[in-house]
Amino acid sequence: MIHLKKLLCTAALLMATAIFAQTYDLPIIFVDTKYHQCLDDKIIEKIPATIRVLDGKTNNVADSSKATPYEIGIKVRGRGSSGFPKLNYTIEFHDSTDKDINVSLLGLPPSDDWVLHGPYVDKSMVRNSFGHWLFRQTGHYSPRTKHFDLYINGVYRGVYVLIERIKRGKYRVNVSKLKKTDIEGDNLTGGYILAIDRKYDSYSKLSKTESEFVTSDGVKVILRYPKKDKMAKEQEEYIQNYLNELEALFKDGKNGSGYENYVDVASAADYLLHLELTNNMDPYLANNFFMYKPKDKTDDQGNKTVGKITLGPPWDFYLAFKNRLTPESSNDDKNGTDSTISSQYQYDNIWIIEKLYTSFTSFLGWHQANWVFEMWKDSIFQIEVSKRWAELRSGVWHTKTIDAYLDSMKTHLKSAADRNFKRWPTLGKASGQNDPDPEPMKYCDTTIRSSNFMGLAIGGYNADTWEGEFEHVRKTTKERIAWMDKQFGFTEPASPVVFEPIIHEPDWRAEMGDTSEVRIDANNLSRLSPTNFFAMNGDHLEIHTSIGGTFALVDLNGAVLYKTQIKTGLTTLKIPSKARHKHWIATLNGKMLNR
User: Fold this and answer.
1) Distance between CA atoms of residues 550 and 565, nearest Å
2) I need a surface site. Which of 35, 228, 251, 264 has the fewest CB within 10 A?
3) How far is it, in rounded angstroms, from Cα 323 to Cα 475?
4) Tally of CB atoms within 10 A around 566
């Protein structure tokens, strides 16, 4: 018996040593709660912890003590996802006096708070990264992502995704800082970050920094910026009245004429096309629908530029790309059939998630803004959407561009996926709320599991391998693209006209006093440039650039219609005759220049 015990102890020691010495090809983040606190789904208020990060080309668990420790607060985040055994977390960095501090994580620009997303029902582990990448390709900001391996209190939790939170800043949503004293003139008009996001349980109650108002149509709007304690009454009244005026354009028999004076049409086209492409129904159901309003500007000559409501950034894709709710007992949805309520109907060649969810939405209090749906009906907007689809599909959303991204992510995550699904053996079956944890977290009472969830399971495909789940995302995306092409009457060119938008490389490391070598792929990790864009003014183009170079107008088949060299600053030129009445993409140094 003693001999057997020695053998078992030796085997356990060898196994622990092997795990401890394992080398990973992803960064590793170690979180350790203080005072032996359990970090389960009941932790919805931040508790104190420390975090350490290893971010080399390869990383070894045994080196965790070599990483710089930071003080953080951490809590569970999410509504339905808080019922999954692999939880999502919000972390906030602070110093010894409990003051928030900005920290760069995994090469991303610094911030004081971040999201640690645990892809559980998204067995491809790529939906959030892919969704945000697609939106950044349109020329707009969307949170950046990085995959990593997570340990909590010494227990391996699997592959996670670091995601930037949606917040104001020159590296994120780049709207003007709004001070409490800005209560008149242009200063009052921006910037604001808003969300239409249903809040109905303890996991998603308004934070202490958020306020909420109700528009004339009964839409609940959350003010994400400015923060509640730094906002003047006049500011809340201004943005509420702004939305009320927009809603009034569609009331009392009005057809919405003039909505383009309140909404940035270009951003609306990109955002709504992105919703449709990703098959993401949540924002239509008043969930994670973000928008922001920049400040109005008046130049020295008295000419005013209105900062309009801009849709985006998008958020949360774990139910997108045809990952769907299924009955708990259904584990055989191999064809990706969709039995949910997301039926669609068409306005000519435009379609939206059906608005007639009246009884369902009224019951749960979900209420999306009416102007979002009504705008789709406008024939002029439909033309703009159709033209924009052709531009994106000819370049940054071309299937070859998408394949290149997915191929790189598949290579990047292959070894990580093997680790993750040994830890979470969920392949080949639906999974979701109230599932057991094969290796419960340390300090937690494993005999108690929250039962306040409906037991919803997700089974969009249920492949037997990670590769099968990953390729299902690619397949369904291409099927969706083909269907949308058909609706728009668009034919994809043989090769992309342009592969990527112009990216601005923020010099945030120098700002932080870091002169070390930058090991960042600017195409993936830098924000899209707010200093490089063009505007149409009658038959003239106004080109703003901080880099200069070769400016060209290229048609959707790649033919150059016009080309010239421009310097930094503002360049105004008349649209050449060869490009008039043609459908073209503006490029700078071979990359898409955003409108």
Assistant:
1) 5
2) 35
3) 13
4) 16
